[in-house]
Specification:
410 residues; five-stranded parallel beta sheet; alpha/beta; binds flavin-adenine dinucleotide
């Protein structure tokens, strides 16, 4: 019987799991342990409204503070799950307290990836609320050099420009956001930043990032080019936080490995969110999400799994990014396709780009068409195959079920 559930990590995955357990009628003890100083909050705001100061943290919380006590969820902030004895199903908190559990959920999220060299004082990263103040000081100090043109680097660039900072981005890839969107959409992103005065240098292989004196940093590429700025932000992706799982002997490979039911290799221990790499049966591989909506979906599903329900959902990742007021939405696997069809116009920033493989939709990227993304997620999950002309036909709604789909072969 499951009477005591402990959740390590009070991000969206952990918090949603706790909420779902109560919503599903679970009456046992729930302890939600979070390393950060705040209750669960909307992390996407960290690079947007919280960074530019248009919102305070109190307005970014997932739930008002009183919600947790009212729901009989024991929220422990500024506390870490420090160690686990999986044989005795007992764990220790950083406060020294020990807790016994029947089920343990590891929702420890991810950390900002760092450069190999130890970053000097004027080099920042961004993941948590605690990272905001030093980065904001760096922006106010300007100019800012950003290493990495992924989602976080680009969003910070947009926010920093809005605050009047001079920004330059160094990117190792061929185009901004090239790991998330097709080249046609990367071009739009590059144009958007150019219009706002942000220079993006692609194909930069960084040799060193150093502090030159107390007032600046210098980045040196392997080809000898150099760039100087007052401060730098390293935004080169995230690494799953698997430290706790590793020390407990739980299987890890680019994330804590879980099956379709979110079960780790160790009995009674589950994992979800950015920290977890879940088996995706249709794609026959483990995959790890790094998007807000996926973390929420994981939280809901893992709670049901802990309560003994069978989870059959196919996880189609989807996320969004807002830069200069333009909201880019994406779903599925947007970089592995054999045909790309654009409905609408990328140039006029009103489009949905459909990534097709063998006539089936595998990914979609959109600006200004959220309905399409909702429809695309379902179409990707069901794997229907349509002729190219049917996918391209703008006169029919993407979600129109009246279109004759060819049953998927996968
Ligand atoms: C700056 C930024 C902007 C983003 N913007 C977007 C966006 O616009 N759209 C989008 O779709 N996604 C966005 N994301 C991604 C999204 O926020 C993440 O995918 C999501 O937060 C992952 O949720 P999670 O609960 O798995 O992990 P996290 O949110 O990382 O939360 C995990 C929590 O667990 C804590 N923890 C770790 N170890 C322990 C331990 N041993 N004991 C206790 N607590 C522990 C961590 O400190 C952290 O608070 C953004 C991410 C960042 C960093």
């Amino acid at each position: 019987m499951t009477d005591r559930i402990v959740i390590a990590g009070a991000g969206p995955a952990g918090a949603t799991a706790a909420r779902t357990l109560r919503a599903e009628g679970y009456t046992g003890r729930i302890v939600l342990v979070g390393a950060e100083h705040h209750g669960p909050y909307r992390r996407p705001m960290v690079s947007k409204d919280l960074l530019d100061g248009t919102r305070e943290i109190d307005r970014c919380l997932l739930e008002p503070e009183k919600y947790w006590a009212e729901s009989d969820i024991e929220l422990r902030v500024a506390t870490m799950v420090a160690d686990i004895d999986t044989d005795r199903r007992r764990l220790w908190l950083s406060t020294g307290e020990s807790l016994d559990y029947d089920a343990l959920l590891l929702a420890t999220g991810a950390r900002a990836r760092r450069l190999e060299q130890h970053p000097p004082v004027r080099v920042r990263s961004l993941r948590r609320v605690a990272d905001i103040a030093p980065l904001r000081a760096a922006i106010d100090d300007g100019p800012l050099l950003i290493v990495g043109a992924g989602l976080v680097g680009l969003e910070v660039a947009a926010t920093a420009r809005g605050l009047g900072a001079d920004v330059r981005i160094l990117h190792s890839g061929a185009a901004p956001l090239d790991r998330t969107v097709p080249p046609e959409v990367s071009t739009l992103v590059a144009d958007l930043h150019a219009e706002h005065g942000v220079r993006i240098e692609n194909g930069v292989r960084l040799a060193r990032l150093e502090q030159i004196d107390r007032r600046g940093v210098v980045a040196t590429a392997t080809d000898g080019r150099t760039w100087t700025a007052s401060s730098a932000l390293v935004a080169i992706g995230a690494v799953p936080d698997t430290a706790l799982a590793r020390t407990a002997g739980i299987a890890v490979y680019d994330g804590i490995l879980v099956d379709e039911q979110y079960r780790t290799s160790t009995s009674g221990v589950y994992a979800a969110g950015d920290a977890a790499s879940r088996f995706n049966r249709p794609r026959d591989r483990h995959e790890r999400g790094e998007h807000w909506n996926s973390a929420l979906a994981d939280g809901r599903a893992v709670a049901k799994s802990i309560l003994g329900q069978q989870i059959t959902d196919i996880d189609v990742p989807w996320g969004w990014s807002t830069q200069y007021g333009v909201s880019l939405q994406f779903a599925g696997w947007t970089c592995s396709y054999d045909e790309l069809i654009v409905r609408g116009s990328i140039d006029s920033r009103d489009f949905t780009a459909l990534a097709l493989a063998g006539g089936a939709l595998v990914g979609a990227v959109s600006v200004g068409r959220p309905r399409d993304i909702r429809a695309a997620r379902e179409l990707i999950a069901t794997g229907v195959v349509r002729p190219t002309a049917a996918w391209a036909d703008e006169s029919t709604d993407l979600a129109d079920r009246a279109q004759p789909p060819v049953p998927a072969a996968r």
